[in-house]
Write a structure and sequence with these properties.
Low-confidence stretches: none
Helix content: 55-70%
Number of strands: 0
Strand content: under 5%
Number of domains: 1
Shape: globular
Structural class: mainly alpha
Number of helices: 4
Distance between the termini: 75 Å
Largest sheet: none
């Protein structure tokens, strides 16, 4: 019974999220094909929730496939977020020199301040 609720809640929440993203197509936003694949995965999780009441092993296989379909949309977004977070320099480690003119030219040869 726990798997029923887990699959159902996950499928409904991700399905609603993807439905709202797909509804922006009405306003002219282009549809990403991965959104459609992930929406199919959400629908597969809802079917796996119903199937888990009668055939738990088949539901687990279907849920695995559905989760892989959903991860095709969510994993690149998470990876991009992590890369953006780790690629930024920390504000404490930045070296800021006062604008003295000569130091700017020596430290930043591309700037033409003289």
């Amino acid at each position: 019974m726990l798997t029923f609720f887990l699959y159902l809640i996950t499928g409904v929440i991700t399905g609603f999220h993807l439905y709202t993203l797909l509804s922006f197509a009405v306003y002219g936003v282009p549809v990403n094909p991965l959104e459609l694949v992930a929406f199919l995965g959400s629908f597969g999780l809802v079917i796996a929730a119903y199937l888990s009441l009668f055939r738990p092993h088949a539901a687990a296989r279907l849920a695995l496939i559905a989760c892989l379909l959903m991860w095709s949309f969510y994993a690149p977004a998470i990876a991009n977020r992590v890369r953006a977070r780790l690629g930024k320099p920390v504000a404490v480690s930045e070296i800021i020199f006062p604008s003295t003119g000569l130091a700017d030219v020596l430290l930043c040869p591309g700037s033409n301040r003289l």
